[in-house]
Amino acid sequence: EPEVTQTPSHQVTQMGQEVILRCVPISNHLYFYWYRQILGQKVEFLVSFYNNEISEKSEIFDDQFSVERPDGSNFTLKIRSTKLEDSAMYFCASSPRVGMNTEAFFGQGTRLTVV
Amino acid sequence: AQSVTQLGSHVSVSEGALVLLRCNYSSSVPPYLFWYVQYPNQGLQLLLKYTTGATLVKGINGFEAEFKKSETSFHLTKPSAHMSDAAEYFCAVRDDKIIFGKGTRLHILP
Q: Could you say which residues from 46 to 105 on chain A have a Cβ atom under 8 Å away from some Cβ of chain B?
């Protein structure tokens, strides 16, 4: 069964460093998302991406963050100059279309720890 | 804006007992609703979804949910809890993106 894959599963980085979280969405999907879950808290929307551009972003997604689809398969989230409060689980998701009755398929997540 | 509210951040039930996880939604248009489950140290897995049609929706692992427009609710139930059901459950509503509730952690007591 097709699935969204994320790498790495766990990333430890020093405060101030840049990290890139990688995702391979399901191959025929067109819409891509990043979500964040701080430990013990809700899953929060960060950004959605379609047709090689951001379609929507939350207030969390400031200039520190960027997304890119560098080739036909990968979808990346870059966090510049990481802060302690960026420590969270980051989920990538994809969906074949953006219709209201379409669920998003989530990856297993990348646990980012900023020290 | 659409939103969901989950009542109870923690719910404990005995093995074999009824599971009831509550979710209420707020939407100005007919909602599309989902329940996701997150097992420890794992990602988010879709349990079930309501789009249109039958208001009682059956999902995986014996779970079901009923859409009640009059009560703006979409509560998740399972007749008999199993130890393997221990997880975090998220109610969600679909906008241009999926919007999650705060989650309910289900504990199963032996």
A: 48, 55-56, 91, 93, 98, 100-105
Residue B56 near chain A (CB below 8 Å): no
pLDDT of residue A22: 97
> Which residue of A lies nearest to B5 if distances are taken between CA atoms?
A42
Residue B1 in this model has a pLDDT that exceeds 90: no
Helix ranges restricted to H, A49-109: none
Nearest Cα to A42, choosing from B6, B69, B84?
Answer: B6
Q: What is the DSSP letter of B60?
A: G
How many other C-beta atoms are found inside a 10 Å radius of the C-beta of residue A53? Answer: 8
Restricting to A residues 23-42, those with a Cβ less than 8 Å away from any Cβ of B are 33, 35, 41-42
Could you report the per-residue pLDDT of A56-73, keeping only the tens digit for each? Answer: 999 999 999 999 998 878
Query: What tokens appear for A101 in the block?
Result: 């009755």
**Closest CA of chain A from B30, distance in Å:** 10
pLDDT at B84 over 70: yes
**Whole-number Cα distances in Å, A93 to A26, A112, B12, B76, B101:** 9, 17, 30, 23, 17
Q: Is A84 left (phi over 0), alpha (psi -120 to 50) or beta?
A: alpha
For B96, which of A42, A98, A101 is closest by C-beta distance?
A98
The strand pairing partners of A86, in sequence order, are none
